[in-house]
Amino acid sequence: MRRSTECLTIDSIQPEPDRIARAADVIRGGGLVAFPTETVYGLGANALDATAVARIFEAKGRPASNPIIVHVADVPAAKQLVSSWPNVASVLADKFWPGPLTFVLPRKSIIPDLVTAGGPTVGIRVPANAIALALLRAAGVPLAAPSANRSTCLSPTTAEHVRRSLDGRIDMILDGGPTTGGLESTVLDLCEPTPRILRPGLISILQIVSVTGGTVIQHARENPSGETIRSPGLMERHYAPRARVICVEDGGDEEVLKHVAAGARVGWITLDGAIKTSDNVICINLPFEAAAYAARLYSALHQLDDAGVDVIVAELPLEAPEWSAVRDRLMRAAALR
Q1: pLDDT value at position 152?
Q2: % of the chain surpassing 70 pLDDT
Q3: Do residues 127 and 142 lie in contact, with contact meaning Cβ atoms separated by under 8 Å?
Q4: I want to staple 145 with a disulfide (CB 3.0 to 4.6 A). Which of 42, 52, 250, 252 is the partner?
């Protein structure tokens, strides 16, 4: 019989050393610990232990073709895992680490093939979260840590989201309260002279260019058949709630009415601030500011799933660099990528 996952409440500002030590013992013993980052909750295992990493794939139902980002405590720890460290990585790390920016770089052989989907590169970052950093330092190993949810489903922004998805499948959850960023990190490929964004995230292309001063490729091409994926989050359907998601550019009034008329219970994510909730429609108004919207998006989608809606109509924000990550997540939730 599968036993319940242990959940420890932990201070988000000054994590209790004894609780961090217990979680670190689980990691060193080959176990799985879910923990908060500044983006979403991650599911951590010793990145240098192939058997432990395999448990992540089993718990999540994750395909082996989907690589995992490795979290480290600082730049020296990152350099131990890669075979080259270009100057642009130093420049960006000085500005954005700790923070939600992942570098893809050539890996060293100490990284198990399972972490990188058998590819020659590894995604690596330093999280900006006191609990995550304390766990990394106490464990003394890098953490392979995708989002702590079942594969392709909504990423978790609270410990309760993790518990509902993975209870009994993992060893421990560190409950540090809701995450602040709400969306995953930006993934930036630094293997070529011109950096390219593989997955948009909380750090925008405008922020990156303001530091590098050079060209950055905004949209990575979809992964061609037969080529190893360098970043997670590139599957056509990803970050998806249980309810069907429909993306609209025009507010969504007509789309909502169509599904209500067909007898559906509808969740409606809008940007205009109007109150439109009724017996058959649950409306959530999100801020018309990209960072604030991102912080609340997954929570809103979880809320609508919990309410049992059949369809979620989501108004897409305008197509602009600062909204790139939000649009990407909504369109992947609707399988439009």
Answers
A1: 83
A2: 93
A3: no
A4: 42
The CA-atom distances, in angstroms, between 138 and each of 7, 78, 143 are 18, 16, 12
**β-bridge pairing 281-285 and 311-315:** unpaired
Higher-pLDDT residue of 234 and 15 is 15
Taking only the tens place, the pLDDT of each residue in 193-226 is 999 999 999 999 999 999 999 889 886 555 545 5
pLDDT at 1 over 70: no
The pTM of this model reads 0.93
| Rounded CA separation 173/161 (Å) | 11
- The torsion defined by the Cα of 19, 29, 4 and 242, in degrees rounded to 10, comes to 100
pLDDT of residue 252: 87
* Separation between Cα atoms, residue 119 and residue 217, nearest integer Å: 21
- Tokens describing residue 254: 């007509």
- Band (pLDDT 50/70/90 cuts) for residue 277 is low
Omega before 287 within 30 of 0, i.e. cis: no
Sheet bearing 70-71, strands edge to edge: 6-9, 172-175, 33-36, 41-46, 143-144, 70-71, 121-125, 101-106, 186-189, 196-199
336 against 54, higher pLDDT: 54
Question: Given CA atoms 138, 176, 207, 228 in this order, what sign does their dihedral have?
Answer: positive
Q: Is 25 exposed, middle or buried (0-12, 13-18, 19+ CB in 10 A)?
A: middle
Tell me which residue of 24, 25, 112, 100 sits closest to 68, measured CA to CA: 112
Domains and CATH numbers, the chain: 6-212 (3.90.870.10), 244-333 (3.40.50.11030)
At 25 the pLDDT is 98
Other C-beta atoms lying within 10 Å of the C-beta of residue 215:
11
| Contacts for 179 with CB less than 8 Å, ≥ 6 apart | 36, 37, 38, 39, 40, 41, 129, 157, 158
**What is the phi-psi region of residue 76: left when phi exceeds 0, alpha when psi lies from -120 to 50, beta otherwise?**
alpha
3-state helix, strand, coil in the chain (%, to 5): 30, 20, 50
